[in-house]
Design goal:
By secondary structure, the chain is of the alpha/beta class. The chain has three domains: 190 residues, P-loop containing nucleotide triphosphate hydrolases (Rossmann fold); 69 residues, Obg-related GTPase Ych/YyaF, coiled-coil domain (DNA polymerase, domain 1, Orthogonal Bundle); 64 residues, Ubiquitin-like (UB roll) (Roll). The protein has 14 helices and twelve strands. The strands form three sheets. A six-stranded mixed β-sheet has the order 2-4-1-5-6-7, sandwiched between helices. A three-stranded mixed β-sheet has the order 3-9-8, sandwiched between helices. It has a three-stranded antiparallel β-sheet with strand order 11-10-12. Strand 8 and strand 9 form a beta hairpin. Helix 4 packs antiparallel against helix 5, helix 4 packs parallel to helix 7 and helix 8 runs antiparallel to helix 9. The longest helix has 32 residues.
Length: 363
């Protein structure tokens, strides 16, 4: 899972990046230079920790994701203006985008506009992403139309028809994620990695004065850009970052005084997992390593086996499965087996979130 942090200048997105790195046990990559910051962040998982205790694991491996803090975008980025525009290609390689939006006052900051308006800023960046996608679509359409003139039809004709639909949609200032597409069309578009097709978390970076109260900016943002593949959330990055630097005993008191939610980090990660349609399954009975894995919701046991190792997929026989809730209720695998909660499943079994899987295979 690769998640890119984007935004206009002076939104505090690098502070969000530092906070997520700190909470995810990662060394924050360099940023503020001419290159994006990159870090591998662990996904905190109480279920995994509990399983490790049950299995007396020698090693515990959390699911991780790559977090990238991109250079700030500016007006005109869709036409190649500004340093941030040079990284649009890398942004296309992300699985999801977190768009950090300024929702705090600071007279020391020279903002892109004279007033603070997160919905307006979100629309501005959305327009730049639409223009960048339109450029990709237009270039491909020009090549396809050249092929059609040479008599190369079939696949080219179908792709050209799809891209014309996409172009009309983009011209209407609508993101590709809102376009109703069939499975085959989605496969064709996947190679283009269009920015407006990507799931997006719109993250309001609020000031301390807004902690603990209702924020009308959330509703305006939802109304302006909410839709399929979009979530809206908020946090006070400055306060969260400062508290994360304190000893645990002091941090708890400061969180209570400021009205900070203790699970801001987890909420952001889970929003990204939800946007990507990912679930978590576990391996680890035996005590060597207890590990969390993420796969798309609806994946089969065969797909889960291949995620662990290609040999397990190639030689798959059966999967021994128990869900975390059942194991937690019984306290041990042996007790769960006695109650018939441990079962054997075939390769077409649809893995559920929280399943603990042992693959039986023969290569």
């Amino acid at each position: 899972m690769r998640v890119g942090i984007i935004g206009l200048p002076a939104t505090g997105k690098s502070t969000v990046f530092d906070f997520l790195c700190e909470m995810g046990g990662a060394q924050a990559g360099q940023h503020g230079s001419n290159e994006p910051g990159v870090a591998a962040v662990q996904v905190p998982d109480p279920r995994l920790d509990h399983l490790a205790a049950i299995f007396t694991a020698k090693k515990v491996t959390h699911a991780t994701f790559e977090l990238v803090d991109f250079i700030a975008l500016i007006r005109g980025a869709g036409h190649g203006e500004g340093l941030g525009s040079h990284f649009l290609g890398q942004m296309r390689q992300m699985d999801a985008l977190v768009h950090v939006l300024r929702d705090f006052e600071d007279a020391r900051i020279a903002h892109v506009e004279t007033t603070v308006d997160a919905a307006r800023d979100a629309m501005l960046v959305n327009t730049e992403l639409l223009l960048a996608d339109m450029d990709v679509v237009d270039k491909r359409l020009n090549r396809l139309e050249s092929d059609l003139k040479k008599g190369k039809r079939d696949e080219a004709e179908r792709e050209a028809d799809l891209l014309r639909r996409c172009r009309d949609w983009l011209v209407a200032e609508r993101p590709i994620r809102d376009l109703d597409l069939g499975e085959e069309d989605q496969k064709i578009l996947r190679g283009f990695a269009l920015l407006t097709a990507k799931p997006m978390l719109l993250l309001l970076n609020i000031g301390e004065e807004k902690l603990g109260g209702e924020n009308p900016a959330l509703e305006r943002l939802e109304k302006a850009l909410g839709g399929k593949g979009v979530r809206v959330a908020q946090l006070c990055a400055k306060a969260e970052w400062e508290v994360s630097q304190l000893p645990d005993e002091d941090a708890e008191a400061f969180r209570a005084d400021l009205g900070l939610q203790g699970d801001s980090f987890i909420a952001i990660l889970h929003a990204c997992l939800d946007l990507l349609g990912l679930i978590t399954f576990y391996t680890g009975e035996g005590g060597e390593e207890t590990r969390a894995w993420t796969i798309p919701s609806g994946s089969t046991a065969l797909k889960a086996a291949g995620t662990i190792h290609t040999d397990l997929e190639r030689g798959f026989i059966r999967a021994e499965v128990i869900n975390f809730a059942d194991l937690d209720a019984t306290g041990s695998v042996a007790a769960a087996r006695k109650k018939g909660l441990l079962r054997l499943e075939g390769k077409e079994y649809r893995v559920a979130d929280g399943d603990i899987i042992t693959v039986r295979f023969n290569v």
